[in-house]
Specification:
The structure holds two protein chains of two kinds. By secondary structure, chain A is mainly alpha-helical. Chain A has three helices and no strands. In chain A, helix 2 runs antiparallel to helix 3. Classes of the chains: A mainly alpha, B mainly alpha.
């Protein structure tokens, strides 16, 4: 056994103590937090410059959709 | 042995002819290095986004993910979900606009502007080695698929027993012709056709497979029955059905325990791939505007949500149909060979060829871009004009193809590891450290060139040491147990390599002289710039 083995075993045992229900929360939280960030982005960062854009041209909508699908997948599977 | 009719072969032949013709037609409009490497910066978002997905899903993935799903279960789908979508969204709004505005050809070129030529060269060499080797792996994957699916056997004559070699050479020649002619534009346009054919073909396997096993519910039940029967035989019943779960416990037999997926894949390897992989980023550098570069990544992220369903789930169907399959890389080919009707089989072969070609052409073009811009132009001919760069780009494409053929033939001799594992292990050697220097360069003003070089090399060395210390023969020689308890722990390599690189960057930066203001001006991420 080397110090690396001791560190690895300690980390493995510590992470194994986290309940799987809480682990699922981590996986769902990642896309949800990103979704919040995307929705808070300024309009200038998500729409074409210098033109009057339609709502469907706002990238927030499509990025949000991709992240909602992710959150659902990790909540359900 | 599966039988193919002339209709199957005709479908494949027509598809290949159309692809090569499009590539050659685009090649007639290429006249400079900028046309060849960045498609003249005229690409639309939907072309780039579709091409991103087509490039990412190669023959390696169809065979490898299908095989890994058979062996370990649905958790391999994480590579396409949490391993892609979040990173693509972050890349779209933060990193890609920044690279596009910098007007560079390659990521290593950006690294020289921010740090120094040593960082650029080290990164370029790693990417070059990886891409050239990866093309070889993909060529081998294609040959294996064709030989298994078509049931190709040559019994007599000088070519007897060389079926894989023949398939590998034919594929290399076909992809080489149009990539050589049309550069990035040919790659992206053919990728769009290839993506549509690939998704259609895999969707067909999914639908027919699910119908055959009696629906989604029956599929899950059958998978769990097989798992329970195996657990009863070995008296090692898992707490959850690992084949039908995306999130696996720390002490799993598979290479996908949740910390490796959430941290190693979701937070390190995936952003490193989508933000720092030249083959991926290069097509967005060819976008006609910054907004189109962003939109391309968002469109790619949406498409990515579909991919595990059409690639990983067929692996589970193969698990139900062929539970005792030893070489799991044969899972998807066996499904195609035994399930699809004549005529449709040809369409799937075309789909597979599409997936394969779309990745090989991209990596080939990107490797040539790095070799030409980061090595030839940087060190030998800084004043080379567009025509000269085009010539060198094409010559390096030929040279890389020859290397890839050799490497593909070498991989065909290896036993034990799956194709997907070889690919991911190669990436894990340097992706973590590459991501660490990219993040430090863009987000931390105090990061210095010497620190980036030390951090990158230290991180790569860490990966290699961990890989070595986990090899059975080395462990026996040193009388140690393996460092990692999961199989094929490439995701853990990337975490440790990233952490070591990050620590080295911080420590060495604080010990060295800060970069002058004029050098880093315009090369650091500012929130206000990203949204302007």
């Amino acid at each position: 056994m080397t110090p690396l083995h001791f560190i690895g075993d300690w980390l493995r045992d510590t992470l194994a103590m986290i309940p799987m229900g809480l682990v699922r929360v981590f996986f769902v939280a990642l896309p949800v937090l990103l979704l919040v960030w995307v929705l808070r982005l300024p309009r200038a960062a998500t729409t074409p410059p210098d033109v009057e854009s339609r709502p469907t041209e706002n990238l927030k909508l499509w990025a949000g959709l991709a992240l909602v699908i992710q959150a659902l997948i990790y909540a359900l599977v | 042995m599966p039988t193919f009719s002339w209709i199957d072969y005709a479908v494949v032949a027509i598809y290949l002819a159309i692809t090569v013709a499009i590539g050659l037609a685009i090649g007639r409009r290429v006249s400079t290095g900028a046309d060849y490497f960045l498609a003249g910066r005229r690409l639309r978002w939907w072309l780039i986004g579709t091409s991103l997905v087509a490039t990412d899903i190669g023959g390696t993935d169809i065979i490898g993910i299908g095989g890994a799903a058979h062996k370990y279960g649905l958790a391999v789908g994480n590579f396409e979900w949490i391993g892609c979508v979040p990173a693509m969204i972050v890349a779209a709004f933060i990193f890609i606009p920044f690279f596009w505005r910098a007007g560079v050809y390659t990521i290593p070129e950006f690294m020289e502007r921010r740090f120094n030529v040593g960082v650029r060269s080290a990164l370029a060499l790693c990417w070059l080695l990886f891409m050239a080797s990866n093309v070889g792996i993909m060529l081998f994957a294609s040959a294996k698929m064709f030989v298994t699916t078509v049931g190709l056997e040559i019994d007599a004559g000088p070519l007897a027993g060389h079926e894989i070699t023949i398939c590998l050479l034919v594929t290399a020649a076909l992809v080489g012709v149009y990539t050589l002619a049309g550069g990035l534009a040919a790659v992206v346009y053919t990728d769009v056709i290839q993506c549509v054919v690939m998704i259609g073909g895999c969707l067909m396997v999914l639908v027919l497979g699910i119908v055959e096993v009696g629906g989604v519910g029956a599929l899950v039940d059958r998978v769990q029955e097989i798992e329970q029967a195996r657990a009863a035989a070995t008296a090692a019943a898992p707490a959850v059905s690992e084949h039908t779960s995306l999130i696996l416990p720390v002490k799993t037999e598979s290479p996908f325990p949740w910390p490796a997926i959430l941290i190693g894949l979701g937070m390190i390897l995936s952003p490193a791939y989508w933000i720092g992989n030249q083959a991926i980023v290069q097509r967005s550098l060819g976008a006609r505007s910054e907004f189109e570069a962003k939109a391309a990544y968002i469109w790619g992220a949406l498409l990515k949500n579909l991919i595990p369903l059409i690639i990983a789930v067929p692996g589970l169907i193969a698990f139900v149909r062929f539970p005792d399959l030893q070489d799991t890389d044969r899972a998807f080919p066996m499904l195609v060979a035994t399930m699809l009707p004549i005529g449709v089989k040809g369409l799937f072969l075309a789909a597979f060829a599409a997936a394969l070609m779309s990745s090989i052409d991209s990596y080939l073009n990107s490797a040539a871009t790095i070799l030409t811009n980061d090595l030839y132009r940087r060190f030998f001919r800084p004043d080379a004009d567009g025509a000269r760069l085009l010539f060198v780009g094409r010559m390096t494409t030929v040279a890389l193809l020859l290397w890839a053929i050799g490497f593909g033939l070498y991989v065909s001799q290896l036993k034990g590891s799956g194709i997907y594992t070889i690919f991911q292990t190669l990436m894990a050697f340097f992706q973590g450290p590459a991501f660490a220097i990219l993040l430090a360069g863009l987000l931390w003003r105090r990061a210095t060139g010497p620190a980036a070089l030390v951090g990158f090399l230290g991180g790569v060395a860490t990966s290699i040491v961990l890989f070595t210390l986990n090899q059975g023969a080395i462990c026996r020689w040193l009388h140690l147990k393996p460092l990692f308890q999961v199989r094929e722990p490439y995701l853990y390599f990337s975490i440790w390599a990233f952490l070591v690189a990050a620590v080295l960057i911080i420590v060495v930066s604080l010990l060295t002289r800060p970069e002058p203001d004029e050098k880093v001006r315009g090369l650091m991420y500012r929130r206000s710039e990203a949204t302007s």
